[in-house]
Structures
1.
Amino acid sequence: MKNSIIRPKELDAKERVYSFDEVVMGYDETEMLQEAKRCIQCKNPTCILGCPVEINIKKFIYQLTQKDFEGAYKTIFEKNRFPSICGRVCPAEYQCRKACVFTPKNQPFASENAINIPLLERFVGDYAREKNLIEKHKNVKNYKYKVACIGSGPASLTVAGELTRYNIKVDIFEALHSLGGVLSYGIPTFRLPREVLNYEINLLKNYDVGFFTGIIVGKTLTLQELLKEYNCVFIGTGAGTPVWLNIKGENLVNIYSANEYLTRVNLMRADKFPTYTTPINTGKKVTVIGGGNTAIDAARVALRIQKIKKINGTVTIIYRRTEAEMPARRTEIEHAKEEGIEFEFLTMPKEFISDDKGNVTGIKCLKCKLSELDDTGRRKPIPIENSEFIIETDLVIVAIGLQANQTLLSTVAELKTNKWGEIEVDKNTMETSIPKVFAGGDIVGGEGTIIEAMGMGKKAAKSMLNKYLT
Ligand SMILES: Cc1cc2nc3c(=O)[nH]c(=O)nc-3n(C[C@H](O)[C@H](O)[C@H](O)COP(=O)(O)OP(=O)(O)OC[C@H]3O[C@@H](n4cnc5c(N)ncnc54)[C@H](O)[C@@H]3O)c2cc1C
């Protein structure tokens, strides 16, 4: 079809499961030009409204059609410093691509032929990385203002990126030894290679951003200490605490939270077996519980761990609703299916079963049906009576959600939080109940997306500038 999307090349599903190599290859120049030229340069480009950081999508795509790659980079850079990251992991099908004129109105996600904006953005970011297009920061001494960011996920990185445009000194304090938040400990390398992630984070060092790892604010340092030294503080501590099912047997051996499992692979290098012998148990019959990105990532990682350890096994995802309701990205679901991940939809775990040594051996489940749409616009899973059955398993990964980490919040009584333990902010400014303390990302909105966290970071930076840093 004349106006069909240009599909990127991908590693073959049968082979890619034996490695953690990046699955989706970017466009080459010819493919990029073909895709960019499909954009009809709408008079009122709705795609821009679909982007939480408001990249001028129409302009950068036009510049690409003119082969003005540096111009395209500058256009994106004005709004977003992380094009290679966002071009790979932004759920564009729910954002800019959904708002593209090629997606009919009221569709829940982008139509197949909506312009592949993230892959065009990725082309620009990767071009800039290859050519090292970044401009150096002029050497400012005696900064007038200083801002501290807590956590180094996309929300804080964006605050730093925005404020350094105005010669503000930013220091980032991160609890882990590695920077990037979920981008580093959660998302596997086959979706986001670490050289890409580290390159775009390290660019901030050109702007004199200070990075301090291994610092847990609330333990190693207090918020009050930061407020004495910095004009403003941004809290971007994310939602890193796993939600559990709270059913019988959940503390059996070989039941992991997805966060722990993914951290062992991504940060403790279990993906580099046998070079690294990180302790991680490898099931023959792995079951992942959940339907979001985290569940899909955990399942695809577990499959690769089986393959590189030469274990002939299965990986099954259990989800209470149907595929249509899965919150995971559509492309990731397709990739998982291609790789041989199995799915048990409309299935609700009721109890974990063990052998006499306390190892998990099965999950007692109930079949479900879906209710009518409720007032949140979702269909509730309703367990069906007498539908009990058992799924045999020897390793379970629970990926049903994440919630706000309370380590810092529990040390600051004046910080207002909501019933989910997330920080309450003024939605227009992102300022918290403590003056000069701002917050954004998953610690404010609960589990969200990278670009939403970046959007909140941008808003917070703008408010700090308006109110305290001029
Ligand atoms: C496995 C997984 C896959 C995902 N895939 C996608 C995807 O493909 N696309 C997408 O858009 N979104 C995805 N998401 C969601 C997305 O990653 C998050 O919405 C986003 O990272 C939130 O950013 P953040 O800056 O708020 O916090 P985070 O990325 O969570 O970073 C918070 C950081 O703060 C640090 N921290 C916490 N407490 C302290 C403290 N007291 N002191 C110092 N540091 C602290 C943490 O160690 C962490 O590094 C995924 C999430 C997960 C878990």
2.
Amino acid sequence: MRLSELLSKAPANEEAQVERFLNARLPWGKHKTIEVGKVAINFKCKTCDNVRTFMSGDKLSCLGVGERVVSIDACLKCPVCKATIEAWFLVVSRDELDVQAPTVRLERYVDNRRDIASRIGVGAGDFDDLLERAQLAYEERLGAGSMVYLRKIFEAITKQVADIASIPTIGNNGGRKPFRNLLQEVDEQYHIIPLAFSSDGYKLFSELSEIVHGDSNEEVALQKYYPCRSLVIGIIQNVASDQEMKRAIDALGWNINGLNVPSSGAIVP
Ligand SMILES: [Zn+2]
């Protein structure tokens, strides 16, 4: 594959063997223009109010960083309204960078989207915004931060389904019902937990929900970020695929702003 294909998979930190893109070592601090195909990344363009493939030009700017590390700059443009955003990639090679077909990995990716574009979510209003925040925290290697946003979604959607299904969020003693109990009641009625996460007797689900909901350490949070994110997206999709539930929630506008979600434990009604 060409280097542009690997870069186009950002923010995924993929590794692949790519066609040669440097025919000599690029020393520290030296620039070179490289032609590796166009980088193309999908974003939701705010001007177009639609998903667009933002594209780079034919040439990218490559800066030598170390023996096996280069920094690459690109300016990506919406093909329709011509709005532009900047993207930066740090690429690390397993061997020498100037060999015939180096195996390289996208180590870091940062984009500067300002108010031009947003990452593509799952089409669930405010939850998309929280998913994007979780992802950005993860990309900055902020494990606990990323979990806070996933937890907000997890709790807000459970609370919304409970409200629509008239499941009380207040326990018998007049206090808030523990989140775990509320979730169990909601799941019994509406099966919001994705099958993939409940098929092992809820072991995987329990483990991940403990990480999302409890106080896991940074390293564990980063390691389990993607499975936790899949779990939360699965819950959103399950709720959205239930027509009755979707109508009710659409009517509420996937509202998360009216909820006061504390950093851990119960939901404040
Ligand atoms: Zn546009």
3.
Amino acid sequence: MTRKDDYYNRAKQQGYRARSAYKLRQLDDEAGLLAEGEIVVDLGAAPGGWMQVAAERVGAEGTVVGVDRQRIRELEDVAATVEYVRGDITEDRTKDAIREAVGAGMEKRPVDVVVSDMAPNMTGEYDLDHARSVHLAQQAFEVARDVLAAGGDFVVKVFDGRDLDALEAEIDEEFEYVRQMRPDASRKESSELYLVARNRLTAPVRTGDELEVDIVDTGTEGDGIARVEGFTVFVPGTQPGETVIIEIEDVKPNFAFGTVQR
Ligand SMILES: C[S@@+](CC[C@H](N)C(=O)[O-])C[C@H]1O[C@@H](n2cnc3c(N)ncnc32)[C@H](O)[C@@H]1O
């Protein structure tokens, strides 16, 4: 029996609408993306296999918002809150409907995880299919930037090709790190892979920035603390009252580390 048959049959037996459900299961098992009570936005969600997996994993306190230009048949027997947005992700009104479904607005970004399994209609022409998949991934990234909370995660499918590195670098700017994952359930002959971006950064500083700061406080470990637009930057070896020039060494969702430049 081929691997394809294996996942297809397992999906049938276990009540998943699509064999692709196993891709999200495997991504989550390896990376630990989904947790109970979380809000998940699933882009390109029809027929609903990933939604079933996400709903299982976020549980009764969680919410799953499925988005697709095709109709998604209502999920049955799920404890999570489930919402459906029908529309094309490249259109503003679809993005507005997502924002509304999750209660995002102004500075409020309530979503824990954005996943996208969107794929373009395939032409068989490798470069064209790649370019279209990168375009869809960028649209998904736009949604993620719009609704994802600080510390949130983003998973996006893309076909391998020449623009992959640039896309990955663009996403990497906004997250603590990004890795490429190829779940076993992806067909062997497929060029698809998933970019898994962890810990969305909303910090006003980035690694490598050089800036002058006032040390205003001391942390529990004795490091000096500067605030940049209200964001905490730990600066080892400094005391309140000092003004120093620092280089940002490491950025986390809720704080960063800087070192004094001599
Ligand atoms: C591979 S399927 C997703 C399968 C899904 N993850 C599951 O487990 O059931 C890709 C989906 O992306 C959707 N899609 C592609 N382009 C889209 C777009 N521009 N806007 C919204 N959905 C799109 C397609 O309609 C299709 O349902």
4.
Amino acid sequence: MRRVHCDKCNKEFKIRIRTQKIKDDIERVYFICPKCKKEYTAYYTNDKIKDLQEQIRILRGEYNKLRGKDFKNGYKKLQEITKLQNKIEKEMDILKRLAFYI
Ligand SMILES: [Zn+2]
């Protein structure tokens, strides 16, 4: 479990992830400082991002099997993973901007 420092009260605490439905399939993933109750948004997600994350999970499994044995195909898997991660990043960025107006 990751530990963080609260910007507001400086308390160190363990992150307990919560999700809040924003609209349609959009969810806000956030955590709260247990002392001063300040909310921190980690990221926004939706069905598309969850689907991409699932694809990455599968690719990682395939990559782990190839690692150290098949350099060429392992390299391909890593490229695919990176592409998907970039897609997720872009999608999260869009949601972040969108959520500002909801
Ligand atoms: Zn705090």
